[in-house]
Amino acid sequence: MAERDADQFLSGVIEGFYGPPWSVLEREEVLSWMQAWGLNTYFYGPKDDLHHRIFWRSPYAEAEAAVVGHLIQSCHSRGIRFIYAIGPGLDTRYNDSSDREALKGRFAQLMELGCRNFCLLFDDIPDRMRPEEIERWDNLASAQSAMTNELFAWVSERAPGARFLFCPTPYCGRMEAAGLGGPGYLETIGSELDPAIDVFWTGPEIISRSITLDETEVLTAKLRRRPMIWDNLHANDYDGRRFYCGPYSGRDVRLKDRVKGILTNPNNEMPLDFMALRTLAAYVAAGDSWDPRAAFEAGLREWLPRFETVHQPMSIEDLTLLADCYYLPHQDGATAARLFADIAGLLARDPSEWGPEAGVVRAEVQRLRDLCARLAELKCRPLFHALSRRVWELREEMDLLDRYIGFVTDPTNAGRAFHSDFHLTETYRGGLVPRLQALLVQSPDGSIRSRDLTRSKGGA
Q1: Whole-structure pTM value
Q2: Is residue 318 flagged as an active site residue?
Q3: Is residue 2 situated within a structural domain?
Q4: In this prediction, what percent of the chain has a pLDDT beyond 70?
Q5: 338 with 298, same domain?
């Protein structure tokens, strides 16, 4: 495999999540981070910009265009490549020339604003075709390739050397294995899509724990080109209770030489994305070795000044514990994992066997509870606002554990049931969603069954 060309290898940020797009000020801060850390690409495709998917045929109004134009110019002023993405796949008519002309019209508007690089996204759409489309093309991949090739040729005439990207309908290994898009979809894309067009891939899953070299080589053979990684490792739009500030990990450092670029689609809440972007930048700049935990610890030291408080200073140990509690989708950080093991180990034993260990665990619980409460004193209010609801949930759990351990270890409470006046039925862990979640149980192997059925079979 040829060496990476630093000018051609894309590294940077995808604003491509479901949920409110970032504000102008948030984008400016992201661009400042990118410029400082050497990331070179800003990919604009927020799913809930109405002109991205729902009203993709309609041009931006003047005020809306001004916002996008400002972002384009901000990228250019920092030497950052801007890519504009549009997702017509929900209702496009592949054989209708008027739809292709609508796309050209949108691209023309963006070109007037200074954009030169584009992407067509066919992700998260039904993989079906109309009868008249089936008559013209044998399969979905051929129809999408034809449309994309025409748009790429149109753009290339007006902006020679432009980067053009494509997101397939099956964009991860599980989707391909399930046959999404039809038989041989990726192979057809490989043979019919113009070889100058980059193809996105998220790995074996939508949110991939790892992306291996072997998997990437197999994919490269199918696509007849190295893929472009759309990385959802730090995305949280699928779970509003969580966010992720662990390091970029699960990707061999040699992956960079097997792909055309790595763009990360991070947390919806921009103030929480410092670590996702900082550690990606460190990974891109790394040589022959990559230590995610070392990058995590280095990144936290840079992030720490953002946690300046009105009163008691935040220590690096405090920030490490907090970040470890919101590490990555598939794992807790080291200090949070140890804390959970300590708590679970204590509660798994009869209280009569606890001894002095209960006091040690309770002190750990109190420390995390109080740390969560102190975040209300952050001087950086946007950071606090991004943290508040998620951290409040963690604080409540720590407070309940503290009260429970204190109650059980008090000999005057022997034989009494524990109640908390601060965690009342229906207001604490209440609502329809938690009740629904209690009906089905997911096993470690991913299988799901009803709670009653699980119990009848001897499960937990």
Answers
A1: 0.94
A2: no
A3: no
A4: 97
A5: no
